[in-house]
Specification:
CATH class of the largest domain: Alpha Beta
GO molecular function: oxidoreductase activity, acting on the aldehyde or oxo group of donors, NAD or NADP as acceptor
CATH topology of the largest domain: Aldehyde Dehydrogenase, Chain A, domain 1
Number of strands: 21
Distance between the termini: 75 Å
Organism: Pseudarthrobacter niigatensis
Protein name: Acyl-CoA reductase-like NAD-dependent aldehyde dehydrogenase
CATH superfamily of the largest domain: Aldehyde Dehydrogenase, Chain A, domain 1
InterPro entries: Ald_DH/histidinol_DH (IPR016161), Ald_DH_C (IPR016163), Ald_DH_CS_CYS (IPR016160), Ald_DH_N (IPR016162), Aldehyde_DH_dom (IPR015590)
Pfam family, one: Aldedh
Number of helices: 16
Oligomer: single chain
Largest sheet: 7 strands, mixed
Length: about 475
Amino acid sequence: MPTTATETTAGKETVEGAGITIQDPRTGEVLWTVPQAGPDAVNDAVDVARRAAPGWAATAPAERGAALRAAAKALDAAGRELAGLNASETGRPEEEALAGIAAAVSTLEQYAELGPVHRGHSLRGSRLASDYTIAEPRGVAVLLTPWNDPVAVACGLIGAALVTGNAVIHKPSERCPRLGEALGEVLAPAFPAGVFLTLSGGAGVGATLSRADVDVLAHVGSSASGARIAEAGARTGAHVIRENGGNDPLVVDRDVDPAWAAEQAAIGAFSNSGQICTAVERIYVHQDIAEAFCSALEAEAALRNSNGSVAPLVDLRMRDAVHGHVAEALDRGARAVEGGALPDGPGSFYPATVLVGCTEGMQVMAEETFGPVAPVQVVDTFDDGLRLACSGRYGLAATVLSSNLAHIQQAVAALPVGTVKVNAVFGGAPGGAAQPRGESGAGFGYGPELLDEFTQVKVVHIEAPPAYARAGRAEVDQP
């Protein structure tokens, strides 16, 4: 994108090479303007990281782990300040932002432990030779991270990339640039100069970084942006890791308690105002419990709307997109039994919304809405719900609520997603990883497997010269 181009986001006016103006999602008040990097700054950052990478790669893994622990300690100390910036820029409640920062601290600590024990494999060959593999850092890693859980998601990529010996250039989302800069200021002192850099900017800065001479492009964000980054990586040869959009289904079987199922659906659809990659985006409920389920889900949404627990969406552009999906569904015959209308007043609030009478092809069922919307389609059988859940071009995650072991096993086998959750919309063991499919991305995110993404394997074969080999063989052959 040319440096003179203007990118307009409702609530944010950005000029590439100039600055990013942020408004408070609650009030619409202008908070600040953050300068963003021009092409020269991007090129300089790549050069600095490239020069710093060999020294960091040669640093002992235990020392890299110790640096990561120091970064985690600094992040923990700065938690309240960063949570306040998160709340100001994205509208996320401060306590939820603090929980995200606590998760980020734990992630850095986890990688500080995992990095030094990340190892290769021995290979079976001749008994007088050695064959093994070595995991080596790829070099310079560009990390493009989102705004919806900005510290936790960023630190997962940052921790794995740094502890395996890569130099890192982090570009946080343009929707939370001050937070991204502050995170960089907190973490960078734990590492040698040039090893961890932060650049602020919008789509133009991300595109410039994607075309640069780097070794890894890691992106968490929309599928459209992810596709462009994958294209750029194919041209430059950079290794690409993507966790992109999702349209995660929830299948509700006939043999579960409808009130409990509605509670699970509400948690999945309304948490963080639906602004979670693995949020529940479409619901297929068995006809035998549909009426009770929908009534309970309506009550769950109404409670959230009445007690003010639904935070604003990140900006007006996001709210317009969410309401566009809802309006299209209403035009095509769906009914909003709760929410579904633009609220009066300042900010980018949108109510928890329950849509019934939804059908295939509606945007709320086919696309990622990314807002507090629970669209419900009633199905005749579990097989019908599973068939619909398996449809679409995304493949991030899916949830099944059922007491029928055969149905659960059927769903696990059939669902074309990276993560299948049974009887809980969120959760999972520490250290878990996921491998998205389809337009939801590629490569492992999080967990020990992410260390593999940031390294490349070298195979080593060692044997003695012929004279030494003959001598050694004679010794082995002695009775």
